[in-house]
Write a structure and sequence with these properties.
mainly alpha, Growth Hormone, Chain: A, heme binding, transmembrane, Feline leukemia virus subgroup C receptor-related 1, receptor
Length: about 500
């Protein structure tokens, strides 16, 4: 087995765990391939990507709107029993984590809908739900009703689940071989950009120092602006989005399209059954299980640290530096955005999926250990460790998505990555509550040790995964066949004889 670039350093040449019938039959597909069929890239792909990046940013802004202003939310919406402050703050916290619950509940239905109804239908559903949820939230402010706000937040969360799956699917269906990872990373970082905008903008506009009427006014302006923009983007998506381009963007997609020609005539029930069988099969593959578990442990750790960072630093160490703690949180968001961008560009340039995944996991683990051992020192130590933690965990996310896609090809990208989102959301909630419990009862050091142990397990699992880049092999083999075929056509007839 051959590998590309420096990725072979960590690669182990072992017998594939995939059944022979599931393998991509390179020799047959290459010989049967029409030499006139070549990948073609459409400008429309950038327009569609831009539309859904903007939808993702606006949805993410909505979903992260309340995490930095819980005291203002309690004073404006008055959720639950006014005599039970703990219950009120807990109800506000649920506004921030409801999107994780949405991922758990709706990822599998979204994958099935994508396989049965098509990419365009899922895109339109995601855009429409985001618009509807936004207008519901707008109606919650006049008069102020917490239950209406929560319902709107749930609808926006379901929309974001659709959009996350669609952005991943978009990368494979519309973008070329050397653009897929960058497209995925841009799609992932769009949600972080929305988080960044809300982190910077919301505390500046809405604060406990404003009057009650002023805070309601700013909420009204934010809701109305976002709702209007989402409505416009939904209309654009209805006009511009297509299921797939007329010509495939890569040889891997040509192979999939050829294999799926027989599926066009089957009914929705048969498509549903085939999609369900496909989802079941990937969990029988040891390599994918290893990717999923290691992904869940690292991303779950980052959920835990992100949600509890302010509490950890302020309550336990740096009560006199509340402003600097806010800057540390900002560092975490910005560094993860830089990690997303760097990951996509490097993966597309090197195609070294495993080595980049392993390196990012190792450095994230080292950064977590450094954060654990230096947190009680000067505040500049958390600045440095959090930056590295954010950057390399952000770097890891697109790399793990691409690694999973390579391991499960020709299974849909939305299926492979959708289950990573599913399992990381489950572990994210479980690890956050466990982390908070350990911190409360035993201290921050032991809570961080808990995260380090899980990351160590994930790092070992990642290093044990053997390499078989199924999608990349198809792209390289078919490209080589095209080059040979073109040279033969250019060779004078006498020489060929």
């Amino acid at each position: 087995m051959t590998t590309n670039g420096i990725s072979g350093y960590f690669d182990v040449d072992v017998k594939s765990e995939f059944d022979p019938n599931e393998k991509v039959k390179n020799s047959d597909s290459i010989n049967d391939m029409d030499s006139s069929v070549k990948p073609f890239l459409y400008t429309r792909r950038w327009i569609i990507l831009t539309i859904f990046i903007l939808i993702s940013i606006l949805n993410s802004l909505h979903l992260n709107l309340y995490s930095e202003i819980p005291n203002v939310m309690v004073s404006v919406y008055h959720p639950g029993d006014s005599n039970d402050k703990s219950s009120q703050y807990n109800m506000i916290n649920w506004l921030s984590i409801v999107h994780l619950v949405s991922n758990i509940v709706f990822v599998i239905p979204v994958i099935l809908l994508n396989d049965c109804l098509g990419f365009r239908c899922c895109c339109l559903l995601g855009a429409s739900l985001g618009t509807i949820g936004s207008w519901i939230k707008y109606s919650s402010i006049k008069p102020v009703v917490y239950e209406v706000l929560l319902f709107g937040q749930i609808v926006c969360s379901v929309s974001q689940t659709f959009i996350s799956i669609c952005l991943i699917r978009l990368s494979g269906v519309w973008f070329g071989r050397n653009e897929v990872a960058t497209t995925i990373s841009v799609g992932v970082l769009s949600s972080k950009i929305g988080h960044l905008v809300s982190f910077v903008m919301v505390p500046y506009l809405i604060s406990k120092y404003n009057s009650h009427e002023m805070n309601i006014y700013y909420f009204d302006i934010i809701y109305l602006t976002v709702s209007a923009l989402l409505s416009l983007l939904s209309i654009l998506s209805l006009i511009l989005v297509r299921d797939y381009p007329e010509k495939c963007p890569s040889f891997a997609q040509i192979e999939i399209r050829n294999n799926q020609k027989t599926l066009l005539s089957i009914n929705y029930r048969e498509k549903f059954v085939q999609s369900w069988v496909s989802m079941s099969k990937i969990w029988s593959k040891q390599s994918y299980v290893f990717v999923a578990v290691s992904h869940a442990f690292l991303i779950g750790s980052m959920y835990s640290i992100t949600y509890l960072l302010n509490q950890i630093l302020y309550a336990n160490y740096f009560q006199e530096n509340s402003t600097k703690i806010g800057i540390i949180e900002l560092f975490l968001i910005i560094s993860s955005i830089l990690g997303f961008i760097s990951s996509g560009l490097l993966i597309d340039f090197t195609k070294s999926f495993k080595i980049l995944t392993v390196i990012s996991y190792v450095i994230t683990f080292i950064s977590t250990v450094a954060f654990t051992t230096t947190i009680n020192l000067d505040i500049w130590f958390p600045f440095c460790t959090i930056f590295f933690l954010g950057f390399f965990s952000g770097f890891y996310l697109p790399a793990s998505y691409e690694y999973a896609i390579e391991r499960t090809y020709p299974v849909s990208e939305s299926t492979s990555c959708g289950f990573l989102i599913f399992i990381s959301s489950i572990t994210g909630i479980a690890m956050t509550y466990t982390y908070a419990f350990i911190i409360l009862n035993f201290g921050v050091f032991y809570g961080n040790c808990f995260l380090c142990v899980l990351q160590l397990i994930g790092m070992i699992l990642t290093s044990l995964i053997s390499t078989e880049y199924k999608r990349e092999r198809v792209n390289l083999d078919k490209r080589s066949h095209h080059e040979i075929d073109n040279r033969l056509k250019m060779t004078p007839k006498k020489l060929r004889n």
